[in-house]
Give the backbone structure.
Amino acid sequence: MSSLKKDFFKYGKVEDCPVYDMHGHMGAFYGAHFPIPDPDSMVRRMRRCGVKFLAFCHHANLFSEWKNNTENIEAVRRYPKELRAYCGVNPNYPDSINEMLSKFDEFRDVFIGFKMLPDYHGMPLTHENYRPVWEFADRNSLIVLIHSWGNSPNDGPEQIGLVAEKYQKLKINMGHSCHGEWDKALALVNKFPNLYLDLCAVLDDRGILEKFVKETDVEKILFGTDFPWFDYHWYIGAVMGADITDTDRRKILHGNAEKLLKSCGRSK
Ligand SMILES: [Zn+2]
């Protein structure tokens, strides 16, 4: 049996295998109840489960206009060791986006990049309103976490291919890995060096992580959970239970994220 799995199931965390979660959120959300949505309880849970680092975007900063991303900034400055944020981008407020970009440098300690949610905001990734953000992220080698979903006209494989081709200095964390269109997601990461697979919502489908490990370089896979939507013990447990090696697990759970953050000048 894998020694990581044995230790994780016994102690609830593995000291020498810290977890980096590259896709999370924060705060209450309409129509859902989260028992632990606030920064204090989230960080407490992270420590209990051996999660050393979380890159997130607060729900309030995802759906409103820029408004200084107050919730993101306050949370990161309260927990600078554990947290970094993706600056929320809502393309329905183009003026607000320009204001955000002009202030971005003031918050270099907070943001590792941007978060886009095209299906929810009703605009495709290639929409003109996103362009200033793509260009800014590319100039500054930032990470863009996008929501992606199979067969979506806004953030499906075709749209992602177009932006990955055009902006090659930035890194794209493909949230949910085009859920359902797994082969197309794999074809994309195998084609574009700046594109990564994200495990969030992928682990609800048995065997897909094994397929990813078999059909691409394991270094293209990032751990992500949508925490606090999903809990860490379940999510890390699913990686521990997959039919892959401990070397793969260490890369997925922390090594790949550490390398990515370092390559963007944001090492932890
Ligand atoms: Zn998400």
Notes: Strands lie at 19-26, 51-58, 83-89, 111-116, 143-149, 171-179, 195-198, 221-222. The domain at 17-263 is CATH 3.20.20.140 (TIM Barrel). The chain has one domain: 17-263.
